Amino acid sequence: MFDHRLLLFATPRQIGVLDWRPGHMHWLGEFSANAEGLAAFRKIVVKHARLPVLLVVDTVDEDYRSEALPHVQGHARDELLARKLKQVFRNTRFTGAWRQAREKTGRRDDRYLLAALPDAEWLTPWLSVLHRERVPLAGITPLALAYQHLLEKLREPSSHTLLACRLNNSLRLSYYHNGLLRFSRLIGGDTPTQLPGNAADEIAKTQLYLSGQRILPREARLHVLLLDPSGQLDSAQAPLNADPAFSTRRVDMSSLARALRIPDAFLAATPEVAPLAAIAGEALELNLAPPELLQHHTEFRWRRGLHAAAGIVALLGLGLTAAYWLHARDLDDQAHQLAQQYQQFDARYQAIARTFPTQAIAPEQLVQTVSLASRLDGAQAGVGGLLAAIGQPLLAAPDIALDSLSWTDESLTPAGELQVNLDAALTPFDGNYRVAMQRIEAFMQTLQTMPSIHGVSLRSSPVNADSRSTLSGKTLGADAANAPAARFSLSLSYREARP
Description:
The chain is α+β, with helices and mostly antiparallel strands. The chain contains 13 helices and 17 strands. The chain has a 5-stranded mixed β-sheet with strand order 3-2-1-4-8, sandwiched between helices. Strands 11-10-9-12-13 form a 5-stranded mixed β-sheet, with helices on both faces.
């Protein structure tokens, strides 16, 4: 599962390990800061080397600063924060910045919380084990940030909240403004905070410090939450409630267990899991780890992203394969149904065809017969129109005598078109063939002007241009009456003109 991770709770004396995933957590134990503890811790790390790790630090050596910086983004923001962190914390290795909000007035600068661990050499042995085993370290964050998520789980509505939590014989006081961390301090176990009234005095001192640093407005009333599994902080509730600057509420373990959704017995046995369970699964807002420690986690995220992408592609491939398979099955079913219908129709056709009478001729001949009948039934060109169309040019040319006129209606011509052959002679003819050809061409042009006559061509002329023919006749004193006739033939198409 992608959300499965290890949560480490580190103090200068020991480190605790929580195996967490949504809906399930298992406390793997605490390990002292000695050789035996490091060896046992290494075995746990090797067993869970593939899980990302979040390290929660609880130490006295921590520093918090609230700064307003210009609103920039991208690489400019990274450079600005790097310069500011180096300016404030010098050469401190574990530093981080968290952009909490943007101001609504003035330049609308960004409000940042800067944090650092000035003296964290005690973390080096634990980090060395994680680095040698190539464990993906997701980040290092202070315990106060984990308590912020704990307040969210408790649904604390106060704008100014001071969480007083006693854990591992130490008292941590953390101030939150509108649910966001602004300041935190740890009072070590050597301080007698267990004495009556001492915890209340520390809370009062913290309130004065916050007011003096202008972190807490002077007129604001500080709401104090007391969280102590051992119940030693209960004595501080009465003196704090007597002070009008405070309002106090004690968080019992059963309410905390319900808010974190963990069993009461498990929380009572290992109270350290409360802040770890609160921050588990949340986005890391304040990371104090230097970039070189996060390299394995970057590789882990790339590897997990590639696996997720491969899984998505595989699921899409399976989905497409299933869709194509179902579509193919549907097509097979349709083809099977069509084949069955074809067989049924073919059987019915064969049954009906057996009842037909015996055919005397082939079907192709029937088709030709029907086509011929359709042509015969079609409209035919009128002979009267043909004679009228040819008669008008003949009347205009009295020197042309018609010998014969024939026409045919062939099946290859368009419907209503006649192929006409015209044989005629020039009378009188004086033997001048050049004039005769001019008269024939004039007659052909007259025919071409008729709307229903097309394609007029000279089929034979009075002049025989064949090289094999012989010339005969008289050139001097020829009798015009005895000259041979100038006969010619024309071919043309007649199509009845339609309005």
